Amino acid sequence: MGLDNNARTAIRIGIVGYGNLGRGVEAAVARNSDMAVAGIYTRRDPAQIEPMGAGVPVHAMDSLPGHKGGIDVLVLCGGSKDDLPRQSPELAAHFSLVDSFDTHARIPEHFAAVDAAAQAGRTTALISAGWDPGMFSINRVMGEALLPDGATYTFWGKGLSQGHSDAVRRVPGVAGGVQYTIPVDEAVAQVRSGLRPALTTREKHRRECFVVLEAGADASAVRKTIVTMPHYFDEYDTTVHFIGAEELAREHGAMPHGGFVIRSGNTSQENKQVIEYRLQLDSNPEFTSSVLVAYARAVHRMQQAGQWGCKTVFDVAPGLLSPRSAAELRAQLL
Amino acid sequence: MGLDNNARTAIRIGIVGYGNLGRGVEAAVARNSDMAVAGIYTRRDPAQIEPMGAGVPVHAMDSLPGHKGGIDVLVLCGGSKDDLPRQSPELAAHFSLVDSFDTHARIPEHFAAVDAAAQAGRTTALISAGWDPGMFSINRVMGEALLPDGATYTFWGKGLSQGHSDAVRRVPGVAGGVQYTIPVDEAVAQVRSGLRPALTTREKHRRECFVVLEAGADASAVRKTIVTMPHYFDEYDTTVHFIGAEELAREHGAMPHGGFVIRSGNTSQENKQVIEYRLQLDSNPEFTSSVLVAYARAVHRMQQAGQWGCKTVFDVAPGLLSPRSAAELRAQLL
Hints:
The structure is a homodimer.
Chain A: E1 11-16, H1 20-30, E2 35-42, E3 58-60, E4 73-76, H2 84-92, E5 96-98, H3 107-121, E6 124-126, H4 135-146, E7 150-156, E8 159-160, H5 162-169, E9 174-183, H6 185-192, H7 201-204, E10 205-213, H8 219-227, E11 237-242, H9 245-251, E12 257-266, E13 272-281, H10 284-304, E14 309-311, H11 326-332
Parallel strand pairs in A: 1-2, 1-4, 2-3, 4-5, 5-6, 6-14, 10-11
Antiparallel strand pairs in A: 7-12, 8-9, 9-10, 12-13
Helix pairs in contact in A: 1-10, 2-3
């Protein structure tokens, strides 16, 4: 709280896992002059990894414990299903860290496991950073606190959904494809007006798929399997476009995403107030990585201040995210 | 940080000053079940004040020191020019408090005076809460921290500007009037596209005045005096509408405001990211009051945790603003 940042040496970041997210973390650290990548840690053969930055060392995962003295904060770039539930508690016993654990229903359990390890190891471990969970969560909490007599709406998109794209690609007869989640304009307009509408799943979002068929596949059968798929598509209006493999590669290789959190509420019978937080992301993984890196700075400061244990974005004061001193922030950005 | 809120007794709020902001604070406290108004303190004759809530006690300002044991947090509702520079340091010596000091250039000086008093008194005093400074400041800091390679834009409006309305009313020949600040649509669209345009003052906002003339006043002279007024209007495109006193009262009595903070930046050469925070307020003072009251909750918790001294919104973790426990926030809003 109110820490002045007089550190003269860079915060040393260890990157655990080097997929889209790990590469994004490397790029984000390069944009923050008070940080440096101490090393990339991988389960693959380190010789096969080519970091973007010249001279960035790549190590095998099992060398991590031996590098404890050379790393201030680990940024974990693995998946929420198989990697983080095991890695975060294991590593929090020895390192301060940030992860992007995003299985909402299992957050309390993950928190408890990481907290026990971090308390014992006197480290600071922040879980579930990113944009949702993350920035969107902060705006849900603050919106509700500022306008207690109100309603909160989260819309996602327009954006590529990894989970839904995977579901489309598992349909028999599909050679490739992607799925975009799209907020329904009418719903967004109603919410923005402060009317607090009751909206069904179908009224809030629609889904759009771009699919490449296998040779000889039956388009109408594929379409039907997609649009009726339980949990993934049956509660939505879904459009399926069949395209060629070249068009898929050319037009649908990017990973845009974003969305809105809108809180509308009344401060008196007459007066409505609307708060909106919006993200428009060309690259979902690169933005998530940028959030992880800003929180790595806060984690380092909290660890240094003796604030050990598991934390979330709800526990981090905004000033801790900035490389600027508290006095500078007050003078220039307040 | 990560405090659990198990308080069974309401946080007792003292309201200092009972104008638009003070009335808004009373209304906001009524919407938060973990808080209660302990008293309203005024420099006017207490017998002349009618609080909205039945049974809310109204006291003369000088009885405040004697009520120290019955108040947890004071919310100061005076003005930044004459009231707060004197009141906030004086009262912070004895009470935890929140103010809405909004003279940006004098914040460091105000901070130093309040900090000395609060450190000595072991109180927690948060200055400059509201929406700008306040919510907009948080979004400027976080936007810059998440996208260091980028640019931040603040737009205000459409909204009634008190300072500019006062300036219009001081023009000879003007019997009454209001001024609206309006963001220029083309500028907002350019900024949202992530282009990072360089915008002049004139390109960002325009100004619109609704003016009632005194009998016999020269409309074209009044218009010229307004649109060429240094500091207030000369750098903007300003439209002046002349209307009747009845229309002014009927159509321009509300105090809407709002605006945008937009951060756009690159996370790689190819990928632009845009973060937007937007407020649409039917009542500027009522929203400001709601922010003050949420921060009063945080201030009370920070005081209880021994985090004394002067604070700003940059020092407050989002979870501290919510009446819910940290565990509940993680389970339900993360």
